[in-house]
Design goal:
The complex is a heterodimer of chains A (217) and B (316).
Chain A (H helix, E strand, L loop, with lengths): L10 H23 L15 E8 L2 E8 L4 H8 L18 E4 L2 E4 L12 E3 L1 H4 L7 H8 L9 H16 L18 H7 L10 H12 L4
Chain B lengths: L4 E4 L3 H10 L3 E4 L5 H6 L7 E4 L8 E3 L5 E4 L4 H6 L1 H6 L1 H8 L4 H6 L2 H5 L6 H4 L41 H7 L3 E5 L5 E5 H4 L18 E7 L6 E7 L10 E7 L5 E6 L19 H8 L12 H17 L1
Helix pairs in contact in B: 5-9, 11-12
Classes of the chains: A alpha+beta (217), B alpha+beta (316).
Bound molecules: flavin-adenine dinucleotide, iron/sulfur cluster and FE2/S2 (inorganic) cluster (FES) (2 copies).
The site of one FE2/S2 (inorganic) cluster has 11 residues of chain A, from loops.
Chain lengths: 217, 316
């Protein structure tokens, strides 16, 4: 039946091998799908492989990617930034949330090639174990997770939510569309509804956010 | 996803021209509906034309007092625009009731109008579905129909259009502006933009292949108290079972469009002459030709009660 990988072979290495075999398989796939475009340089409209450059957590990246690669897979499989998680891969859970040009998005429903020139911040770019982002510290303080799988997405989303409230963006929970929204518990819960937590850490997440927002809930 | 080629368009006319030359291609805007469906191979374009760089992301005030919303304006930005919040409040409210913060940051005006149904059988590629595969049959008829349509349905399809935004735009008499591959442009009233399923549920709008939406325009603001009330299975991040977009004027007259019940935002202008007499006669006229199933017949009283709640709120 299915062979277990060598005990010495880490998951990382299995992934790297997987990615390499994908890369070698591509030219064949390309010539099958688009005979006219076979073998042409990357970035030509007829090709399946495209060059894309963006800034991730402060460092410039240039990747050659199959156009199908989502931003999530580019981060995880091509840049080894595995902090960002794949939950549903369909925009339904928020585990893949990253901040692009100051806005939170679902990286699973976006193609990497669509982000030429973008500034992308993932959980790895918010803080480091030695120098945590205030939201990361507050999540630890308030026990705002159990298994932790949704947590990178929750934290990226939470950071962006406080920016949205500061910028005056209204929400479904805002009583008035004309007043400035408040950083209260009702607003935070509504704005975080795109981040599902299977462990149900919601109330502690809202408390962590309230602490960072500098208000009581 | 099936392999596809990819290019960026340099202008609206260029995008339409490129699409006209590449049968089987699709525009990609926010990607939040298209990529979801491409992953399931329900959509399988052989070529994607990325329109994100185009200059269609502005909201302009028009000389006639209306608003022109670029096709690429993100749902978040449209909902947060002060002119929309003040003069077209039901549109802000409808947008904010849809999807999640992350999705609204990507979702665009045109993409939202063109999002496809959430019928569970449309998503289940193991089941027949006339919309996904014309002529294969409809699994929903005789199946699980709780979320599906009750008016304007056909024997081929009973799906609903899932957009919240479009319901408010229907009540606001919006117009959809487009450009075609031959560079001609046209303006389609939103009432005529989405189609009923009939025998061809796979054809959802009047857009021609390769036709690009450039903007949606709203006429001069009509004032009144504006509402968007959405009833759903959980308080946030769920599609509507029923939704009501309404404007109520100080004299009690007004407009009503209903979401969650049909293949398009549902509005019958003649029903609005009954607004002064309350929710019941309006709902009766809106739902006169309803063909509900046992599982979704609850939507009929729910429309009336949701409208009654809105009218009661308008009186306070
Ligand atoms: C989990 C989840 C929950 C959601 N909940 C809701 C909800 O509660 N309410 C709601 O209303 N919506 C909801 N949505 C749907 C969301 O609003 C749509 O996915 C979004 O609006 C689509 O916009 P987009 O720009 O991403 O479109 P895309 O995915 O880029 O495109 C959609 C379609 O429009 C076409 N298109 C795009 N722009 C143009 C143009 N300018 N001219 C011609 N064709 C064009 C594309 O070719 C494609 O066929 C939800 C989505 C998800 C994933
Ligand atoms: S209702 Fe329409 S979308 Fe749903 S299964 Fe039937 S044909 Fe397909
Ligand atoms: S993995 Fe992107 S939303 Fe679930
Ligand atoms: S902490 Fe386990 S899913 Fe949220």
């Amino acid at each position: 039946m299915s062979k277990e990988p060598d005990a010495g072979l880490s998951r990382r290495r299995v992934l790297a091998v997987g990615a390499a075999s994908l890369a070698t398989a591509l030219p064949a796939a390309r010539s099958e799908a688009q005979p006219a475009a076979a073998g042409n340089a990357s970035d030509s409209p007829g090709g399946l492989v495209h060059a894309v450059s963006f800034n991730v957590n402060g460092s410039e990246q240039r990747l050659d990617l199959d156009a199908r690669t989502t931003l999530l897979d580019a981060l995880r499989e091509h840049m080894r930034l595995t902090g960002t998680k794949k939950g549903c891969d369909h925009g339904q859970c928020g585990a893949c949330t990253v901040i692009v040009d100051g806005r939170r998005i679902n990286s699973c429903l976006s193609l990497a090639v669509m982000h030429e020139g973008a500034r992308i911040t993932t959980i790895e770019g918010l803080g480091t174990p030695d120098k945590l982002h205030p939201m990361q510290a507050a999540f630890i303080e308030h026990d705002a997770y159990q298994c932790g799988y949704c947590t990178p997405g929750q934290i990226c989303s939470a950071v962006a939510v406080l920016d949205e409230i500061r910028a005056g963006v209204p929400s479904h929970a805002s009583e008035s569309l004309l007043d400035r929204p408040q950083a209260n518990n009702t607003e935070m819960r509504e704005r975080m509804s795109g981040n599902i937590c299977r462990c149900g850490a919601y109330s502690n997440i809202a408390e962590a956010m309230a602490e960072v927002a500098g208000r009581d809930v | 996803m099936k392999p596809f080629t990819y290019e960026r368009a340099s202008s609206a006319a260029d995008a339409a021209d490129k699409a006209g030359r590449a049968p089987g291609s699709k525009f990609i805007a926010g990607g939040t509906n298209l990529l979801d469906l491409m992953k399931l191979q329900i959509e399988a374009p052989n070529h994607l034309i990325d329109i994100n760089g185009l200059d269609l992301d502005k909201i302009e005030s028009m000389p006639d007092g209306g608003l022109r919303i670029g096709a690429l304006v993100r749902n978040t930005d449209l909902a947060a625009d002060m002119r929309v919040r003040r003069d077209y409040a039901m549109l802000s409210r409808a947008l904010l009731a849809g999807a999640s913060g992350q999705l609204r940051n990507k979702a665009t005006t045109a993409g939202n109008l063109l999002q496809r149904t959430r019928c569970p059988y449309f998503y289940d590629t193991n089941m027949p579905c006339n919309k996904r595969q014309p002529g294969s049959g409809c699994s929903a008829i005789g199946g699980y129909t709780r979320q599906l349509g009750v008016v304007g349905v056909s024997d081929a399809c009973i799906a609903t259009h899932p957009s919240d935004m479009a319901v408010a735009m229907r009540a606001l008499d919006a117009t959809v502006e487009t450009v075609r591959a031959d560079k001609s442009s046209r303006a389609v009233p939103i009432a005529e933009f989405h189609r009923l399923p009939g025998d061809t549920p796979h054809i959802e709008t009047v857009l021609e292949p390769g036709e690009l939406i450039t903007a949606v325009t709203l006429p001069k603001a009509i004032g009144g108290k504006q509402y968007y009330r959405k009833v759903r299975d959980r308080a946030s991040y769920a599609f509507a079972l029923v939704s009501i977009a309404a404007v109520v004027q100080p004299d009690g007259s007004g407009r009503v469009a209903v979401g969650g019940i049909a293949h398009k935002p549902w509005r019958i202008e003649a029903a609005e002459t009954n607004m002064l007499r309350g929710a019941k006669p309006v709902a009766e006229q809106l739902l006169a030709d309803a063909r509900p199933t046992r599982a979704n017949a609850f939507k009929l009283p729910l429309v009336e009660r949701t409208l009654a709640a809105v009218l009661a709120e308008a009186r306070t």
